[in-house]
Specification:
By secondary structure, this protein is of the alpha/beta class. The protein is 45% helix and 15% strand. The strands form 3 sheets. The chain has a 6-stranded mixed β-sheet, sandwiched between helices. It has a 5-stranded mixed β-sheet with strand order 7-13-12-9-10, with no helix packed on it. It has a two-stranded antiparallel sheet with strand order 8-11.
Amino acid sequence: MDKIEELLTRGVEKIYPSPEALEKILRSGKKIKLYQGFDPTAPSLHLGHYVGLLKLRQFQELGHQVIFLIGDFTGMIGDPSGKSETRKPLTREQVLSNSRDYKKQAERILNFSGENPAKLAKNSEWLDSLSFANLIKLSSNLTFQQVKERDMFQKRIREGKDIYLNEFLYPLVQGYDSLYMDVDLEVGGSDQLFNMMTGRDLIHKLKGKEKFVMTTKLLVDAKGEKVGKTTGNALFLNRPAEEFFGGIMSFPDDVLPLGFEILTRVPMEEVKSMDFKAKPMELKKRLAFEVVKIIYGEESADKALGQFEKVFQKKESPENLPQIKIESGEIEADKLLFNSGLVKSLSEAKRFLSQKAIEINGKIITNEKLSLKENDIIRIGKTKFVKIAISK
């Protein structure tokens, strides 16, 4: 498999209008301009974004012009893709705060300096100044029937749920990004297809130009449910390497082949030769190691692997644990977890307790009130540990 063939097939779901048409351009030696957009709806990029960044890196290594677009304007609207409920709108301050570290995280994968640097852009640069008159004119290129047919909108209509106009406008606004930057290709998850095709239509109608769309595969389990992004299981790039490693180790075995394809740079010839049924644990550790090595570096990957084997296979406590200070005496378990910042809410704490996912010194907590001692070790879920310190 040569580099162009791998670029067009590895982790790729579909290419529009066809992979053959894009391949012809790439093999001609022409360098194209491409991008992927990342809406700052959370303070960190996550595993799904990482998949797209790896694909952008492949293009960059072949000399193509890559744009890392932060959707600081579209992030305020809220992308309806895959959502059965309307997103809560974000303020300008929230999206700016959320995106503060996006470039620093993307730099672990893309090169923003040196030869053929990736370009950072923010779509507020052009969307803030888009007049209402021009927006109305732009909207004449998209029909109500087109947008209404989206799966998530049809589902809401059947359930009697509201669809707001800003959600209808989202694909148009995202499509304008492609038009303004005059790109040749847009990359995104397969759940972004409608939005990306809207940009393709706009460029074709208003510039008479071809825009390719490449959808990347989503990391899903055998039931088709997303892995690594679901509630309580999100893998964010601002988390410690050990926690990220442990999160990948919690993946179901059936995602291993897809995980190696879309999350690593292990040659596909080697991936195809792996026996996933005979050695799932060892291969899952290899998968976690390869991903953490790309994001955090090989030294961090070695440490994360060592800690995982020590804690989860040898049942020992990890080193250098963070401490939380408490007063002596009895304390309610859910309040301890919430007040110390170990969980986001009391309801989440109660959920962990009901799922028997809290341990003290290796023993599952079953009672609601605790009497803790100095240096007791609490484990929350699979990857989070803290040590108790008693205030004196």
